[in-house]
Amino acid sequence: MNYSMANINGINMFFRECGDKSKPTFVLLHGFPSSSHMFRNLMPLLEPHFHVIAPDYVGFGQSDAPGVDVFEYTFDRLADYTQALLNMLGIEKYYMYVFDYGAPIGFRLAVRDPEKILGIVSQNGNIYEEGLGEKWTTRKIYWDTPTAELRLFLRSSYAPETILAQYMAGEPLGNISPDGYSLDIYYTYRDGYADIQDSLILDYRTNVAMYPKFQEYVKKHQPKLLAIWGKNDESFLPAGAEAYAKDDPNAEVVMLDAGHFALETQYVRIAKEIIDRFAEK
What we know:
The protein has 10 helices and 8 strands.
């Protein structure tokens, strides 16, 4: 495993990399409030079959986190910088694994350059209204009327107890290692973190607005797609996985007895499903 920094327009982006560069590339796109660290167990299992890249978005993990006064934290901008990193690394075609925030970032890349996408793994990476859980009701109210009171209330989304609960929900007691959620909580104490995440929570409305475009891409291009889902996820419901199969005859849906952070406990099963479906025979 290699750990590197790339300077994109004066901002350092951290990324993990492993595998033979002559093999097809898999780009792993993390979620909220995590980082490429979430792929620490998956990458060694994929390494014999793929060249694997896992970046930290601007403002996340080990990447630079410029203040909101000098960097516009939107999903468009995060996608721009992710694409710039792939361009710098000379990655022209790739498979992608999208989870949580990784879905609207990854599908933006797919919509912009569909010919670059070899296939998609969506692990609790939602692009359908029917996949939105109950918590999104409050967010929709906030998006329509972004009051200071609701902005402050939604800061609970990245409170330590919320992060811990999101990891634990839908999992048997004792199944979850503390490594993932402890690191996520650590990053929340970074200077400016609250302002960055507040900006992205508000901008998430653009992702839902783009769902029809993401779905149009799936219908038109019908990529080889694996929707592998922690079925106990309260944020993104199993209906979001099943919707892929309605739009794409090349989609396979796999339900796991896991929560939102299914990769924490199911990385061996997820790796096997990816290798079986996407690795060169």
